[in-house]
Amino acid sequence: MDKHYLTSLFAPGAVAVFAGTPALREKDPAYAAAASLHDALTAQQYMGQLVFLDIDTTEGRLSDLVNSSAELAIVALPPDKIAMALEVAGRLNCKAVLVLSSGMDAEQAHQLHRVARQHGMWMLGPNGRGFQRPQLGLNASIVGPLAERGTLALVSQSGALTSSIIDWARPNRVGFSTVISLGPHTAVTMAQALDFLASDPQTQSIVVYLEGIPNARQFMSALRAAATAKPVVVLKAGRNEGGNQAAITHSAAMVGSDEVFDAALRRGGAVRIGSFSELFSAVQCLAARYQPVGNKLAVITNGGGPGVLAADRAHDIGLELGRLSEASARQLQPQLLPQASLADLIDISENAEAPHYVAALSAAAHDPNIDGILVIQTPKPGFEMEAQAQAVAAARKDCHKPLLACVMGDTSVNEARTILTHADIPTFRTPDAAVSAFGNIAAYYRNQKSLQQTPPPLTNLAKPDVEGARMLIEGVLAQRRHVLTEMESKAVLSAFHIPVTQTILARTASEAVMLASQLGYPVALKIDSPDIPHKSDVDGVALNVMNGVSVRDIFERMMESISRKMPGARINGVSVQRMAHQTRGRELYIGMVTDEPFGPVIAFGAGGVAVELYAQRAMELPPLNQFLARQMIEHSAVAQTLDAWRGANPVDREALEQVLLRVSEMVCELPQLRELDINPIIVDENGAVAVDARIVVDNVSVTRPYQHLSILPYPARFEQSWPLPDDGVYTVRPIHPDDAQMLQDLVRTLSPESRFNRFASAITELPPAMLSRFALIDYDREMALVAVLRDTEDLDNNGAPDKPDRIIAVSRYVTNPDSNSCEFSLLVADDFAGKGIGSRMMRSIMDVAREKGLKEIIGLVLAKNTGMLRLMTSLGFAIKTYEEDPDFKLVTHQL
Fold first, then answer.
1. What pLDDT is stored for residue 802 in this prediction?
2. Which of 127, 314, 700, 801 could make a disulfide contact with 319, Cβ separation 3.0–4.6 Å?
3. CA 885 → CA 850, 859, 860, 889, distances in Å?
4. pTM of whole model > 0.90?
C-alpha cells in the first residue's frame, strides 16, 4: 500500500506490448507508431520482463498468455484494434495501459477510458507519445532515443516539444529520471503525473509544459504537493488570452486568465518561465540541483559593459545586486589588479586572469550578503579563456551557492563553454539570459513562502454578518437580477465591516436636495440602475456638488440625459452621498473576478476612472492572510505612491490590508459572488473608505464547503478541546506548516519501538522532504489532526506559558485514487499512551473523512503491534491478513 498507484504504469516489473506482427510493422503505414515503439523498446536493456504479443493471431490467443505477469500493457495499434487489445490486457490482469495510437477524438478516447476502467487499469493516452524511464532502461515512447539518466523529470502536453528537449539535453549533459508526454484526451492527467513525480525518489526537480487545465482544484493540489518536495518550473502556452471586454465590472474586463495562472503558480510554490529559450535555462539550473535562495546576485566580470547589462536585467526583474561586505572587499582587493572595482559589480578588469577569478569567486561564495554568483567572461586576445574556465570549474566544489556562467562570444570560446558545462555550471551566451535564469531560482524561493501560507476562510477580525449578506444576495437572485445596485453592494461590504461612504437613494429632485442638506455639502450624485454598470460613461456621476440648486439641476439633467441615451434602462433614482474628506487620499481599486478554471481571484491596483488603463495589477487566489495581503500591496504598481509622496503622508497600510482580508472573507463565504469592483477605495493616513462598489452574483450549487475555491482554506472548523484523564486540556486541530518543528520533536522523543511501529523503519527523525510533506498538506485530499498540549500551569510574568506548545498525537488520512476510501495512520507520544488519546484522535479523523463523503477507512498495522490492533478492535475495525506482506494486518472500517 506504500507504492504509488501509478507505479505499475511508470515502474512496471513486466511489460506486454501490442504492436502487431513484424510484417505489419515493416509494410503497413498504420503500424508506423508500432515500428517506432518496437525500435525504442529493443534499443535499450530494459531491467524488467518485456514480451511482444499479437492480438491478430487466434492460435491460443489467451491460453499462451494467462501466465503473463505483465503490470503494464503498451498498445500501438490502429484505432479499430485498440479496444480488443485493452480487453486482452484486462484479462491478463494488467494494472496499467499505455495507448500510443493517435488521431482519436474525445468520444473515441472516452470509449477506451471506459474499457480501461472496467478492468481497473490506469490509462495513459491516447494521442500522446508515451514516456521514458532512463533509470529502468524503459523507452515506452515515440519521442526519440532514451534520454540520459538524471534527476530531472519532464511532463509535457506537447509531443513535439518533448522530442526537442530530449534532443537538446544530450549534448548539454542534462539527464532525466522521467519523461512523460501527455496528449489530448488522456485518462491519466497532468495532476496525476505530478502526484507520481512528487513521491518518486529518483526525481529531484520537475519541468512542466502546459497547454490547458481541465480541473484547477486537482491541478493545484498536485502542484502544491510536488512543489513542497522539489522545485517545479512551468512553461504555459497561450499568454495572450485577453479579458472579457464586454464585462459588467472593471475586474472582468481587466483580469485575463494568464494573469490568474501566474497567481496560481505563486500560490502553488512553482516558478513560471515565459519562453522556450528560458525553459532550457531553467532545465540547466534544475539539473545543477541548486536550492532555493534569496535575490541578491553578485556579478563577477572582466568587462564593464557586460556587467552593466547584467545589472540592468537584474533591476528589471526585481533582483538586487549582491555587494561584498566591507570586510570581504578589504580582504579581496589586494588579490586583484589595481584597475579592479568592487563598488557595485565585482569588476576584476579586462586583464584579469584565472587566479583573479578564483579569488573573487571565493570571496563572493563566503559573503553572507550574497545569495548567488554570476561569472562573466569576455574574450580578449592574448588571454586564455580555457584556463579561466578551468579555474572557475575547479572552484565550484567550494561554492555552495548557485553559480552561473556567461561566456560571451562564439567559436573562439566554445572550449571554455564546454569546460564549464562539464562541471555542471549552467552556462549562457548573454548576461541577460544568465540573470533571468538566476531570477527563476530566486522566484522559487519567494513562491515557496506563498506556498507555506494556509489561511482560514475567516480572519481573526470582528466576525462578519455572513447570513445577512447571503439573505441580501438571495433576495436579488429571487428577483432574477444578477447585478446589485451600488447601495446593495455597499450593504454587502458593510456586512463584512468594510468602511463605506453613507449613501441614500433619492427618487425625486426635491428628495435629493433634502438628503444633500442633511448629509452636508459637498455631495456626489450617481445614477442608480441595474442596467448601467459604468455610470461615468453615460454622464451618470456628478462630484463636488456644492448647493441645493445645483443638486436639483443636476438631478433633472441626469435623468433627462440617461432617458435619451439609454431609454430602456431601469432607473431606481439617484444616490446621494457626502464627498469623502481625504484631500490627499489615494484612489485605489480592489476587485474580484471568477476565472475558468481557477475560480475566484482577488485583484488590487490603481483606481478611479482610468482604472482599465493601468496594466499592472497584483493578484492572489483566496483565501488571504496578512502575509499575502501585504505581498499584494508591495508587489503592485501603486506601492510607492502609498508612502510619503508629493507632500502627502503615508497611508494607513494596515487599514488597506484589512480591506483585502475582508474581501477574501467575502469571496470564501459567498460562493454566489461572480464579480466585484470597489472603485475607488480612498486611502489616507487615517484609514480607508469604499466610495463606490458593484457586485455581480449568480446561483451556484454547493455540495461541500468552499468547493468554489481552487485552494481549500485552513479548516479551522475542526478544532476541538478535550480533557486529559488526569488533569489538563489538549486541543485537536488540523495541522499547519508552522507545526513542522513540533512534529519533528514528537518523532525524536519516541522510543525506537514506537518509531518502527509507525514508519516500519529505523529512522530517528523525519527526513526534511518527509517532514515538509507531513506538515504542509492539501486539505482537499488529505487531513492530519494534531493533539496540542499547552502548559497552563507554569506561566511567566506576562502570563505566557514557560514551556512551548507540544504535539502529543497525530492522526491523518490520505484519500485513495478511487475517491471513496482513505488510508489512515496514527501516532501517540509514549508518555501519553493508554490515556484514550489514540481513540479520540481516530474518532476525530474518521469524522472528518465521513464529512468529506468517504465511505471506507483502511490501514496497515504491523502484526506485532498488539496495542494498535487492540485499539482497532475497540473501534470496530475488521482485521484481516494482508496478502502482500504477512508482517502486516489490514484493518478496515466502513464510515
1. 57
2. 314
3. 29, 13, 10, 8
4. no
